[in-house]
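Quick one, probably user error.
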């Protein structure tokens, strides 16, 4: 999986073998120049989902629900998720653990597949006190596992694990039936995701540890994405240099 925000990169990513495209709210940082994902609007996400959907056929299109469009109630979440699905998404992603179980069950019971997202949840950056690795403190491993199992039980189809020690991500992956998608988590996850602009080495600002520059030594964006797909499938990305120690 890679993030994707437009039709051209959707076409190139599809041709390079990417299975799933995440229209991430990271677009607030990499496209819009904000320093968090919080200012991204529902209209922004609907627009970018429609752009991506016009650019590809095969990849699964997952849309992030932006901050403020799903936390308040399952009904509000459904109304906003339905707009993303109408724009061309095939699944929506919501950040949070057990507190999102009721909303996950509400959406999945009404025909909208849900991807969960736990660990470092960027929409909670001010609650977390920064973009910090999660799952290191006493009891965190059990808390994250309970969150993961509660979301699976509620009907989630997929679960993103962001910025946690590999042992924690492996522990969660082993205890779930649904696939896990890691970012700064573990090569043992079922799949991986990166922000496209990070792996092409054109994103602004300091790079998180989990980023690898796949453009190095390549002469096209397609070749860089193909190398990423091959390394993820082979289990050689992420390596120890992209992972967080316990
Ligand atoms: N370009 C981009 N890439 C991303 O991966 C990304 C975004 N934007 N925007 C939304 C969030 C923000 N993310 C981030 C941002 C920074 C770190 C970071 O610098 N983490 C520290 C961890 C420090 C620690 O706790 O040890 C690092 O050094 O990796 C991690 C995830 C992930 N998402
Ligand atoms: C980094 C991924 C998981 C994401 O949520 C995004 O791109 O917004
Ligand atoms: Mg996101």
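Nope, works fine. Designed sequence:
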């Amino acid at each position: 999986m890679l993030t994707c925000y437009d039709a051209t990169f959707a076409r190139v990513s599809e041709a390079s073998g990417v299975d799933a495209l995440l229209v991430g709210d990271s677009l607030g940082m990499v496209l819009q120049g904000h320093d968090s994902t919080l200012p991204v609007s529902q209209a922004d996400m609907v627009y970018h989902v429609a752009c991506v959907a016009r650019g590809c056929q095969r990849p699964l299109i997952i849309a992030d629900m932006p901050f403020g469009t799903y936390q308040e109630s399952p009904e509000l979440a459904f109304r906003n998720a339905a707009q993303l699905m109408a724009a061309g998404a095939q699944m929506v992603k919501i950040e949070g653990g057990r507190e999102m179980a009721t909303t996950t069950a509400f959406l999945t019971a009404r025909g909208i597949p849900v991807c969960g997202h736990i660990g470092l949840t960027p929409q909670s950056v001010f609650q977390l006190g920064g973009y910090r690795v999660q799952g290191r403190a006493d009891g965190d491993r059990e808390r994250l596992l309970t969150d993961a199992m509660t979301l699976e039980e509620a009907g989630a189809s997929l679960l993103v694990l962001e910025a946690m020690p590999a042992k924690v991500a492996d522990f969660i992956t082993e205890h779930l039936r649904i696939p896990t998608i890691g970012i700064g988590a573990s090569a043992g996850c079922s799949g991986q995701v990166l922000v496209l602009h990070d792996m092409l080495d054109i994103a602004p600002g300091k790079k998180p540890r989990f980023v690898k520059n796949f453009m190095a030594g390549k002469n096209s964006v397609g070749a860089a994405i193909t190398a990423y797909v091959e390394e993820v499938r082979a289990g050689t990305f992420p390596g120890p240099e992209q992972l967080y120690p316990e």
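The beta strands are 2-3, 20-23, 60-64, 91-95, 114-119, 158-162, 180-183, 191-192.
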